[in-house]
Amino acid sequence: MIKTPFFRAAVAIARKDIRAEFRSRELISLMGLFALLSILVFSFALELNREVRVEAVGGVLWVTILFASILGLNRSMTMEREGGGMDALLLAPIDRAAVFVGKLAANGLFALLVGVFLMPILSALYNVSLLQPVMFGALALGTFGLATIGTLLAALIGATRARESLLPVLMLPLALPILITVTRATNAILSGTVADSGAWLSGLLVVDIVYAVMCAWLFEIVAEE
Amino acid sequence: MALIEVRGLTKTYGFAPALRKLDLTVERGECVALLGANGSGKSTLIRCLCALSKPTAGTITIGGWSLPREAAAVRAQIGLVAHKPLIYDGLTARENLAFFARLYGVASARIDIVLEQVGLTKRADDPARTYSRGMMQRLSIARAILHEPEVLLLDEPYTGLDADSSAALDALLRTMHADGGTILMALHDFERAARMASRVAILARGQIAYDSATSGAFPRDPAALSAIYAQMSVRA
Asked: Whole-prediction pTM value?
């Protein structure tokens, strides 16, 4: 066999990352603890009344998930670099895009789990109802978008010396379209405006698709060196 | 037809040339020791051969497949033992090999065979992070030979190994060579090159400065080999 089928390779890579993480729980616990501390800090720092709280909760949730994702990606990148894991993947007779999809699936799942962990805590702290089915849809789309950019950037800057500081510098501006749309979608869901939330979620889906296609294509170029 | 054919290979990083119009041909079944100082281009050459680095100019053909056009086919024929183990230390040896078996489309029955070959059967279900440097290197070799590659590329594989682990690696490479395997290894050790290799090439400033295939049989005396190395390095 010259080339391993795309989805078999992508699934194998995702399963490998998830298995390794669920054994060590290094990334999830780091991201979870950071996220928990962040929302506690936000909660104590922003003494908000009920109305402002509802408007602020989307921003607090997504800024926290974004920073926790950066932290997790940084750690994941360092671990890959230490063992030469990325080279091992690029040596295999598989599509580079399959490497991207596999890593994206694992990174997206870790960010999603952090979001799921945060939602009941934020609901209690801010006295809002985040635990709604449509909110999980927004969470899935938002974490997928952030993981898409993060996975590409981690591969792009993984070999550079200043990778830990470069990742947030590059990721924050690129994540802005996702951050804006998913925060607005979250706030619209919380305020119960169905039309607005539908529009923002559709916008988020479009942004996700554009980013996923572009990042998968760019990953193949980045992986050449 | 040669198994590896490199013609006019040039690789530059920015304005700094790492390889300069390098030509190299390796026949099937050869064990080539690639000697060279740090920065001479050994690792860059190996990275280009296994499609991890894109050449600036020149052509590479391995087993009739050319790079970069047929990179997947080339990668399927290559096993690499690099500076780093290319192993996931959170997984056991068996899990690591099972993962790579899926990526290479190799039957899982082969996992036990390579574990036996590298002497890791008893520790196969321990996490790789609990392994010594020598065991990690053996696992790295198991990964590299799992898919029965045509060519085994080794980049300073003895770095950090103790005497016992080095001897075990020697024995493993000798067996592979005796079985008809093609090996290209970058080394600093003249004594080992003289003892293990069927051919010696010296790389200096990104070019092949000496090749025993064209200069006649190389001396099996490490001191004589070292003298050739010093002479060629100065000339380059």
From this structure: 0.87
- The residues, any chain, with a CB within 8 Å of residue B98's CB and separated by 6 or more, are B108, B111
The mean pLDDT values, 10 residues at a time, for chain B of 236 residues are 90 88 92 88 92 91 88 90 88 94 92 91 92 89 92 89 83 87 89 86 87 75 76 68
> Which pairing describes strands B57-62 and B65-67: parallel, antiparallel, or unpaired?
antiparallel
Whether a cis peptide bond, with omega within 30° of 0, leads into B68 is yes
Residue at B233: amino acid letter: S
Query: Taking CB atoms and an 8 Å cutoff, what residues of chain B touch A16?
Result: 88, 91, 95, 99
Tally C-beta pairs within 8 A across A and B. 86
Task: Give the residue on A whose Cα is nearest the Cα of B91.
Answer: A20
Other CB atoms within 10 A of residue A160 CB: 11
| A73 contacts A150 by C-beta, under 8 angstroms | yes
Residue of A19, A87, A94 with shortest CB distance to B103: A94
Rounded to a whole number, what is the distance in Å from the CA of A93 to chain B's nearest CA?
A: 4
Q: Is A192 a domain residue? A: yes
Instruction: Tell me which chain B residues have a C-beta less than 8 angstroms from the C-beta of A13.
Output: 103
On whether the CB atoms of residues B111 and B99 are closer than 8 A, the answer is no
Question: H/E element holding A200?
Answer: helix A194-222
Number of domains within chain A: 1
Q: Note whether residue A1 is domain-resident.
A: no
Cα distance between residue A202 and residue B24, in whole Å: 56
